[in-house]
Design a protein that fits this description.
Blueprint lengths: L2 E6 L1 E4 L4 E8 L8 E6 L6 E6 L6 E3 L7 E6 L4 E6 L8 E7 L2 E2 L2 E2 L2 E2 L3 E6 L1
Parallel strand pairs: 2-13
Antiparallel strand pairs: 1-3, 3-8, 4-5, 4-9, 5-6, 7-8, 9-12, 9-13, 10-11
């Protein structure tokens, strides 16, 4: 089954850190780009950052540049979002997202979402 399963998140004080995990099944995160999005209450879903296929790199949105880091573990077939120096405006539901190409068919896959709450 092709899916992304998230873990991590929770409540943290401003300035704190959290790490989110996104475990893939049915496809390899090494061969596909994985993105992180977030959606705050009353706002549109926005891109946080992307880790491209292995050997290419990462891209971050301006609001999180320098504070968030996306990484990949091929052995765990997982992607991680390390969030440091968290701010109340980072409060949102975070989602990982991929478009694996399997048997010549591309399909969109979203994680189930993880709540991150940053208190001031």
């Amino acid at each position: 089954q092709v899916q992304l399963i998230q873990s991590g998140g929770g409540l943290v004080q401003s300035g704190g850190s959290l790490r989110l995990s996104c475990a893939a099944s049915g496809f390899s995160v090494v061969n596909h780009a994985i993105a992180w999005y977030r959606q705050a209450p009353g706002k549109d879903r926005e891109l946080v950052g992307t880790i491209t296929r292995a050997g290419v790199g990462t891209i971050y949105a301006d609001p999180v540049q320098g504070r968030f880091t996306i990484s990949r573990d091929s052995a765990e077939n997982s992607v991680y979002l390390q969030m440091n120096s968290l701010k109340p405006e980072d409060t949102a539901v975070y989602y990982c997202y991929g478009v694996p190409r399997i048997d010549s068919v591309s399909r969109e896959v979203w994680g189930q979402g993880t709540q991150v709450t940053v208190s001031s």
